[in-house]
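Q: Here's a chain of 124 amino acids. Please give me its 3D structure as C-alpha cells.
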Amino acid sequence: MRKRTFSTSNRAMQGISKLTASEHTALVTPLVQSGWKHTVKTSSTTSKETLQRRFTFPTFSEAFAFMTRVAIAAEKSDHHPEWANVYNWVDVTLTTHDAGNAVSIRDVRMAEAMNQFAKGLEGK
C-alpha cells in the first residue's frame, strides 16, 4: 500500500480556491439544472458550501458499480466525496476543504464525472 502524505503548502501551490462569481454562474448553474443541489450553511464561526445529489439506481449492484467508478476517479484526482449508500441509492456531498469548505473546480469536475458515470445506470 502506498503511503499518502498531505501538505497544505503543496496544495496551495496547486491553486485550489473557491470558484469566482462568474465561474460559479457558468459551472454550478448547469449542475443544479442536472439535479445537483447547491447549499451554503453558515454559523457564527464557520461556513460550508456544498454540492449535493442523490443518485438512484435499479439495484444495489449498479449503485456499487457507480461508487467503484467514482472511487477510481477520486483517487486519480485526489479529491474524495462524502457519501452514503443504502441499497440502490448513493447520497453525495462535494466540497473542497482546502478552499475553505467551498465549491471549487475540483468539485465541479467530480460532479460532472459522476453525472457521466450514472448515465445508463440510474433508474427512473
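Q: Can you summarize the key feature?
A: Confidence is low (pLDDT under 50) at residues 1-13.
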